[in-house]
Amino acid sequence: MSKKSVVVVGSTGRMGQEILNLLKIDSDLVLSGEVDEKKNISQISDADIVIDFSAPAVSVEVSQWCRKKIVPYVCGTTGFSEKQFHKITEAAKDIPIFYSSNMSVGVAVLRRALKALAAVSEYDFQIVEAHHSQKKDSPSGTAKTLQEELTKVIGRTPPPVQSIRGGGVFGVHEILVMGQEETLEFKHTALNRAVFARGALRAAKFLIGQKPGLYSMDDVLDY
Ligand SMILES: NC(=O)c1ccc[n+]([C@@H]2O[C@H](COP(=O)([O-])OP(=O)(O)OC[C@H]3O[C@@H](n4cnc5c(N)ncnc54)[C@H](OP(=O)(O)O)[C@@H]3O)[C@@H](O)[C@H]2O)c1
Q1: For 103-136, what is each residue's pLDDT tens digit?
Q2: Which uninterrupted H or E stretch holds 21?
Q3: pTM of the predicted model over 0.85
Q4: Residue 188 catalytic?
Q5: Rounded distance, CA 223 to CA 217, Å?
Q6: How far does CA 187 lie from the centroid of its chain?
Q7: Angle of CA points 101, 51, 71, to nearest 5°
Q8: Catalytic residue among 4, 131, 173, 188, which?
Q9: Would you tell me how many other CB atoms lie within 10 Å of the CB of residue 41?
Q10: Which residues pair with 5 in a beta bridge?
Q11: For helices 194-207 and 14-23, angle between their N-to-C axes, nearest 10 degrees
Q12: Residue 131 appears among annotated catalytic residues
């Protein structure tokens, strides 16, 4: 079977470079085009799939291109406004879209584990996240997702996420659970950026051939 062609958006960025490195040795996917600040998605003619780690305004435009061309779309960009994210989810009516604010399998497992906290919903909760100093959005997309998940599980909104920025930290997310007589700590630490890139390629392979709709890492875990 021939390899599926991949267009990488944000290819010159930190995540884009990780994706390009993994594509060099992938047996199912091959790089067919790159989009960065110098090359717009409108200059790309076609692809079997698009993988995008760029910036919110760019990703909205890319989602519309994918919708028009009927190309499956994997998006890892974070920091969308509600309106921007709505435009992306609208496109999922016509094409399969995979969105995850964190493409690591570990964070998908952590999200599932949070469901167990319903049993101690009266405890105090605090999410803390740390990232490298160049990260543009705060709190991180992952922290926002975890906060939404926790709100559903405990039936109220926990205090705002605490964000720390510094050095080269790839990403740390911690959920502190504090009772009067005991504490729990749920923690995920990304040891490199490749963990997100590997998750994005896994998502891409899952997405090719799926029906239109919005998919997440949860769907990939069950696949
Ligand atoms: N979902 C996840 O698991 C996950 C993990 C890590 C990061 N992220 C998110 O992924 C995104 C990228 O992160 P990063 O650390 O790789 O950032 P980065 O190093 O700043 O890379 C951003 C990329 O977007 C490109 N870009 C910026 N403006 C553009 C435009 N107008 N048109 C086309 N391309 C444009 C940049 O191109 P130039 O280099 O030419 O400027 C660069 O290639 C962020 O939103 C980050 O939060 C998600």
Answers
A1: 999 999 999 999 999 999 999 999 999 999 999 9
A2: helix 14-23
A3: yes
A4: no
A5: 10
A6: 18
A7: 115
A8: 131
A9: 22
A10: 30
A11: 60
A12: yes
Closest ligand 1 atom to residue 56 Cα is: 45
- Amino acid identity of residue 72, one-letter, is P
- b/e burial code for range 29-38 (CB count within 10 A of at least 16 → b): bebbbbbeee
Residues 122 and 57: their CA atoms lie apart, in Å, by 40
The SS3 assignment for 16 reads: helix
What are the Cα distances from residue 54, in Å, to 40, 174, 181? 12, 25, 44
Six token digits for residue 155: 């039936």
CB of 78 within 6 A of ligand 1: the answer is yes
Closest ligand 1 atom to Cα of 11? 43
Mutation choice for ligand 1 from 8, 9, 11, 12, CB with most ligand atoms inside 8 A: 12
Tokens of 219: 């769907």
Instruction: Please give the Cα distance from 121 to 123 (Å, whole number).
Output: 6
